[in-house]
Amino acid sequence: MGTRSLTIVKDDDGKKDLLTIYRQMDGYPAGHGRDLKNFLTSRVLVNGYGRGGEKVEANGMGCLAAQLISDLKTDGGKIGPGSIYVYPNGSKNCGEEYLYIIAPRGSSFALKVYGLGDDYDKGCTKLLYVGGIEDFDPDMQENN
Asked: What value, to the nearest 5°, has the Cα angle with vertex 89 and ends 78 and 108?
């Protein structure tokens, strides 16, 4: 069995769930959390095109969600079955050990990370991190 996680991408207002991704393996902060940090810190949220710059542009959270699925499924240039799945919004307690929530934060992104609390049946209730993606330390969260 792997370490499962859910990742929720919020809409442009940061209020509604736009996308829910289930990861079957390596969902812990030093795995999936690091993947999310690397992905998100290489991007800038824009409204339109043509700004250019060092970062990949995401034209809103819908564009970011599509880029995220592509990035996670590509896994080093190999698109294959399994590991990453799109789940219905509102899915909770799918056996996941971690829950990640991505929301817009200006031209960058905010992240919340939850782990299993004291009661497994209640799912991911222990808040491990909340803040900007730039300040997220996957190795530190692994030890919480």
From this structure: 70
Residue 5 token pair:
């996680």
Its pTM stands at 0.91
* Residue environment code for 24-56, b if the CB has 16+ CB neighbours within 10 A, otherwise e: bebbbbbbbbbbbbebbeebbbbeeeeeeeeee
SS3 track for 50-113: CCCCCCEEEECHHHHHHHHHHHHHHCCCCCCCCCEEEECCCCCCCCCCEEEEEEEECCEEEEEE
**What angle separates helix 34-41 from helix 61-74, to the nearest 10 degrees?**
130
- Which residue from 63, 83, 81 is spatially nearest to 22, judged by alpha carbons? 83
Distance CA 107, CA 56 (A): 12
Q: Model confidence over 90-136: pLDDT tens digits?
A: 887 778 999 999 999 999 999 999 998 777 677 788 999 999 999 99
* Boundaries of every domain in the chain: 5-142
